[in-house]
Write a structure and sequence with these properties.
The structure holds two protein chains of two kinds. By secondary structure, chain A is of the alpha+beta class. Chain A is built from four helices and nine strands, in the order βαββαββαββαββ. Chain B is α/β, with parallel strands linked by helices. Classes of the chains: A alpha+beta, B alpha/beta.
């Protein structure tokens, strides 16, 4: 099953290697990993999405917690979480498709970041499932390139 | 140098001194010479190993024998990589150690400079933590932090990599405060609710057994264990790492359990309804196949590392904390209860009696043909050699290497509770024994230190005999010289068909002569009588004695689990 792991840690060199090493050693493939600064100076927060056996992942969570620079680890799957992901999609649009695409963009609440002739760059934000389906729908046009940030997530309400 | 200024190397040595460091086990090279310059004016004694791996095992042996954090040092590149096996050995057995490595200058890092290696990258999975120091003023606080991490919570090795220019850099000498480590808070105090629940479960158990592991030794709680066993009268089994956690002469000690455990010990674990596991990680050499491990038992697991709870076996009741905190509280809770539960009518009494009888019959069997006396009474075997050695060194601190002799030593050489048995349990590092024994002898000069090794293991770090001779220690080495890799041969005989000869050594090495060339006392023994004389002489001698024990075709080491659970044991040759 898919797990979303959130890690609060010190923002220092090497911390990412230490964290990712614990996953790779046990054969987990990281589906997405995001990291960025938090409200606390000098602290970063990772959001890692992995698929794998619950028992083995529980062991990884405990090992993560043992890393000296890791302050706290959450397995967010059992929490009420808010999640967002960001994608940039470059599509090729022919003259006759423009009206339809503009309509789709409105429905998806996407934004046009750039359009030069027939090449448009679109921005999509949403939870991972919405981003999946948006990219899926855009597939009826020619997608030249696309990139996703991976998921970021927070618990709802008080921590 | 200006007044009030210091260098990275000086700060390092000063911090080591402040931490109470008595020895550095090291080897020089281009990238750590500034540290040796600073060391010249220090009270710390440098023990010059002959290989960095030896230096690491010496620091580890020192740690295990003393409970303090041993320090080893190497240069960059090959010096650093040579430490790796020693660091991994310490990591697997949770031994506190500080490894210091020289590194190429900061400006050269990443340029594939001469003798450059990313040692912090390499040792990330085998250290509790590691550091690459970036400036001279960070040296002192980092070393303080390294000692703190190595020696608290679950112990382990910490590596500090110091670039050469950081060692020589001058900086304004003012004390930097150690950082607060927000993410490092080992749980020391056990949860009172869990301890009360454990007491309740223990009161009701009919077939309880205690498993003691290496955690008892690293937390110095042998007295607490002895106290608990004395009050509760519950039989005890031990892991390889926990051999000296509980007095081997105590009647309630059923001995080693697991892959090479005795029938009595393995029965106790397999048939138990309650296991109190103290400082053990349920390693695979202990549990055997997990699916069949202790099916009827509820497990109470006391450990300082929460990641060990439920890792290998399902835990009924975890108590995370330092044994030194948890066990005395558990003992006093149980002492408050009335004594009638422990009367002879209690089913527990019958359980204990059965196990003690089984232990007795196992011991009687030992004097028969399967182990102990061999077919030819005159011929020396490892068990007979161990018996003679144990008699001559009754209060020994025993160090072993890795292989068949190691298991024989765990089974046949009783030691008192305390830091009296040192072995590479987790990593199983051949070549660990001699350097570890040197570290142990330096840590405990008043103890009689004995190393039991095999010809295979001994040759892996034999160069350290020079170090031993130079160090001015008292050490007796028994080499079980059977011209073969006994454990390999046993495995090939048991489980492989081709018997491709990788386990036999054709060269007959005279270890007594070799020892003499290295500056030690050499002796040899071909019969039990000769060995008795040799160990008696060694017990009187100063310095290092190496006794070449000419073991013939050795018997395999039994019992050995050959089936699907701990009770499917092979107890001797068919």
């Amino acid at each position: 099953m898919t797990h979303t792991i959130s890690i609060l840690c010190d923002d220092i060199p090497g911390v990412m290697t230490r964290i990712s090493g614990l996953f790779s050693r046990r054969g987990f493939n990281i589906e997405s990993l995001t990291v960025g600064h938090t409200e606390r100076p000098g602290k970063s927060r990772f959001t890692i999405v992995v698929e794998g056996d619950d028992g083995v992942l529980e062991q990884v969570r405990k090992q993560l917690q043992k890393l000296v620079h890791v302050i706290k680890v959450w397995d967010l799957d059992h929490e009420r979480i808010l999640e967002r992901e960001h994608a940039l999609v470059k599509v090729e649009v022919h003259e006759q498709d423009r009206a339809n695409l503009l309509q789709l963009i409105t429905v998806l609440q996407a934004r046009i970041l750039n359009s030069s002739g027939s090449i448009w760059v679109l921005e999509i934000t949403g939870d991972s499932k919405s981003v999946d389906s948006a990219i899926n729908l855009l597939g009826q046009y020619t997608i030249l390139e696309s990139i996703r940030t991976g998921k970021i997530a927070l618990e709802q309400g008080m921590k | 140098m200006k007044k009030g200024k210091s260098t990275g190397a000086k700060a390092l040595v000063r911090t080591l001194e402040k931490a109470g460091t008595e020895f550095i086990f090291g080897y020089p090279g281009g990238a750590n010479l500034p540290i040796y310059e600073a060391l010249q004016r220090s009270t710390i004694r440098h023990i010059q190993a002959r290989h960095e791996q030896g230096a690491a095992h010496m620091a580890d042996g020192f740690s295990r024998a003393s409970g303090k954090t041993g320090v080893c040092m190497a240069t960059s590149g090959p010096g650093a990589t040579n430490l790796v096996t020693g660091i991994a050995t310490a990591y697997m057995d949770s031994s506190p150690m500080l490894a210091i490595t020289g590194q190429v200058a900061r400006t050269m890092i990443g340029n594939d400079a001469f003798q450059e290696v990313d040692i912090t990258g390499i040792t990330m999975p085998i250290t509790k933590h590691n550091y690459l120091i970036q400036s001279a003023h960070q040296v002192a606080p980092t070393i303080e932090e390294a000692f703190f991490l190595a020696g608290t919570g679950r112990r382990g090795p910490v590596l500090v990599d110091i670039p050469k220019d950081v060692q020589t850099d001058e900086f304004a000498n003012q004390h930097e405060k150690r950082r607060v480590l927000e993410g490092y808070n080992p749980t020391i105090k056990g949860h009172i609710g869990q301890i009360k629940r454990a007491a309740a479960v223990l009161r009701e158990a009919e077939r309880p057994v205690i498993i003691v592991g290496g955690g008892v030794i690293s937390s110095n709680t042998y007295a607490d264990v002895a106290d608990f066993v004395k009050k509760l009268g519950i039989p005890v089994v031990h892991t390889l790492m926990g051999k000296s956690a509980f007095d081997n002469f105590n009647p309630l000690n059923l001995g080693l359990f697991g892959y090479h455990g005795s029938r009595a010990a393995n029965t106790a674990v397999s048939k138990s309804d309650l296991i109190l596991a103290i400082g053990t990680r349920f390693g695979d050499r202990s549990t055997g196949p997990l699916a069949s491990f202790a099916q009827d038992a509820k497990i109470i697991h006391i450990d300082v590392d929460p990641a060990e709870i439920g890792k290998n076996v399902p835990t009924y009741l975890p108590i995370v904390g330092d044994i030194a905190d948890v066990l005395p509280r558990l003992t006093s809770l149980l002492s408050e209860s009335s004594d009638d539960q422990l009367s002879m009518e209690h089913p527990r009494a019958a359980w204990t009696t059965t196990l003690l009888n089984q232990k007795q019959s196992c011991n009687n069997g030992k004097n028969g043909s399967s182990t102990g006396k061999s077919l030819d009474q005159e011929r020396l075997t490892t068990p007979t050699a161990l018996a003679a050695a144990a008699e001559a060194f009754p209060q020994a601190l025993l160090v072993t290497d890795v292989g068949r002799h190691q298991i024989f030593a765990a089974q046949h050489f009783p030691v008192a509770a305390g830091r009296n048995f040192i072995t590479s349990g987790g990593l199983g590092t051949m070549g660990f024994g001699l350097p570890a024994a040197i570290g142990a002898a330096l840590a405990q000069p008043e103890k009689r230190v004995m190393l039991i090794t095999g010809d295979g293991s001994f040759l892996m770090n034999i160069q350290e005999l020079v170090t031993a001779a130079e160090a001015g220690i008292n050490l007796t080495v028994l080499v079980m010289n059977d011209h073969r890799l006994g454990m390999i041969q046993q495995l090939q005989d048991g489980f492989y068909r081709s018997r491709f000869d990788v386990s036999g050594f054709t060269q007959d090495i005279q270890f007594d002569r070799l020892a003499a060339d290295f500056g030690c006392r050499g002796d040899r023994a071909e019969s039990e009588a000769e060995l008795q004389n040799a160990v008696a002489a060694a017990a009187q001698a100063e310095g290092v004695t190496v006794i070449d024990c000419k073991i013939g075709e050795e018997e395999h080491v039994y019992p050995m689990v050959t089936g699907k659970n701990l009770l499917e044991l092979t107890e001797g040759e068919a």
